[in-house]
Design brief:
Blueprint: H1 7-13, H2 16-36, H3 42-51, H4 56-66, H5 69-81, H6 94-130, E1 135-140, E2 143-149, H7 150-175, E3 177-178, H8 192-202, E4 205-206, H9 217-243, E5 251-252, H10 272-293, H11 304-332, E6 335-336, H12 338-345, H13 354-363, H14 368-383, H15 389-394, H16 397-400, H17 405-410, H18 421-427
Parallel strand pairs: 3-4
Antiparallel strand pairs: 1-2, 5-6
Helix pairs in contact: 1-11, 2-3, 2-6, 2-8, 4-5, 6-7, 6-11, 7-9, 9-10, 9-11, 10-11, 13-14
């Protein structure tokens, strides 16, 4: 089932309340595992589970003094539990809680993003079906090339988003690991069985090997998947921005009643949502670079990665969620102008059919080099505004020597560009 999550949903994942809730959950599961092993009295476990809680304000007060967030959290919990708090965090190091908790948060954020991508795929697929045979000009280097269809453009985006879905799914899997192995990861003060128990209950996999931290190549892969997805959206909206230019105006992002485009020029209808997506995607790419920088750390750990991650991971997930929602809105409400597409196709007075003429001449036995020379010569005359391409060809003896008027006319059949669209769509299973 595809749901439309709101921004607060993903924002809550990164709230202090949720973070500390995850930490407490992990600490309690460790206590459970230790109790099962006989390392904690059962009555102490019952008391811990009954009384363990934290106070956000109190944590901040303690952290102001101790300058350590995990110690501040543990102290706040201990104040509520009493003497049995001595069993909490036994054999652990801060990163056991930090990294395992972060994995839970990243997994939850990935679920929302994956849902967003599913919805994006659905919307693009529907529009690709709708505009399957809507002919428009294809462009290479920004210059008119040959006709394509708007449906093919959207189908291309749809398939790219499927790849992004698979990338994000892999990224979720690669980050869904926990670590309860103590200082420098040797299990010197806690059993690997405790880690197995905790991770199983959290639906995480135990990191096969760790230092004091879960290795940051996992986090980098996650941020890279986010950055690639954002870059795809940037690519799509950059295309829309071009197609919305006044002299093109083949499609247009939604412009709502009462919306204003410019403080100075009342006529303006600017592609501001597309531009916002392009801008925010740059942050995702920059954050991915920061994640790559976090991979090399000193020895078994340092915390140069920590401050970075507190910014880049929440920000990247929230930004991607936001721009996916905005892109869905754009595609669902996109204005499409078929008449302008037709007008733009005709803007170059038939030049877009030049390859058809080239091939037709070579089929008559003329060399490709000579055929190219003749066709290009007439094409350059069109650029110089000396006539339409078809007229020039019909009056060029070098052409009419090989092609009849009807054969020249057939080269200008635009429906010929649609003949294999069904085959492409069949291959795409749409």
């Amino acid at each position: 089932m595809i749901e439309r999550y709101t921004l607060p949903d993903i924002g809550k994942i990164w709230s202090d309340e949720n973070k500390y809730t995850k930490w407490l959950q992990i600490e309690l599961l460790v206590c459970e595992a230790l109790a099962k092993r006989g390392e904690i009295p059962l009555k102490s476990l019952i008391n811990i589970k009954k009384k363990a809680k934290f106070n956000l304000k109190r944590i901040l007060e303690i952290e102001e003094e101790v300058k350590h967030d995990v110690i501040a959290f543990l102290t706040s919990v201990a104040e509520n539990v009493g003497k049995d708090a001595r069993y909490i965090h036994r054999g652990l190091t801060s990163s056991d809680i930090l990294d395992t908790g972060l994995s839970l948060q990243m997994r939850d954020a990935a679920d929302i993003i994956l849902n967003d991508i599913k919805l994006t795929i659905k919307v693009l697929k529907n529009k690709a079906k709708k505009y399957k045979n809507l002919i428009m000009i294809g462009r290479t280097h920004g210059i008119h090339a040959e006709p394509t269809t708007f449906g093919l453009k959207l189908a291309m985006w749809w398939k790219e988003m499927e790849r992004n879905y698979n990338r994000m799914k892999r990224a979720k899997e690669i980050i869904s690991y926990g670590k309860i192995s103590g200082a420098v990861g040797t299990y010197s003060n806690i059993s690997p069985q405790v880690e197995n128990y905790v991770c199983k209950r959290l639906k995480l996999k135990p990191a096969p090997i760790s230092t004091q931290i879960i290795q940051r190549d996992r986090h980098a892969e996650y941020l890279m998947a986010i950055a690639i997805t954002g870059s795809s959206l940037d690519k799509f909206v950059t295309e829309i921005r071009h197609l919305q230019k006044t002299e093109v105006l083949e499609v247009e992002e939604p412009f709502e009643k009462g919306q204003k485009g410019s403080s100075a020029m009342p006529h303006k209808r600017n592609p501001i949502i597309c531009e916002r997506i392009s801008g925010l995607s740059r942050i995702l790419r920059a954050n991915a670079i920061a994640a790559l920088e976090n991979i090399p750390l000193w020895h078994e750990r340092d915390i140069s990665h920590s401050s970075v991650e507190r910014v880049i991971i929440p920000d990247s997930t929230i930004i991607l969620h936001y721009i996916l929602k905005k892109f869905i809105y754009i595609i669902e409400n996109l204005s499409v102008y078929p008449d302008n597409m037709k007008e733009n196709i005709n803007k170059t007075k038939g030049l877009i059919f030049s390859q058809k003429v080239l091939i037709a001449l070579t089929k008559k036995g003329l060399s490709r080099e000579k055929s190219y020379e003749i066709v290009q010569d007439n094409a350059m005359k069109v650029w110089r505004k000396e006539g339409s391409f078809k007229e020039l060809l019909l009056n060029d003896e070098r052409v009419t020597k090989y092609l009849s008027p009807s054969e020249i006319e057939e080269c200008f059949n635009i429906n010929d560009y649609l003949k294999n669209i069904n085959s492409i769509y069949k291959r795409l299973k749409i």
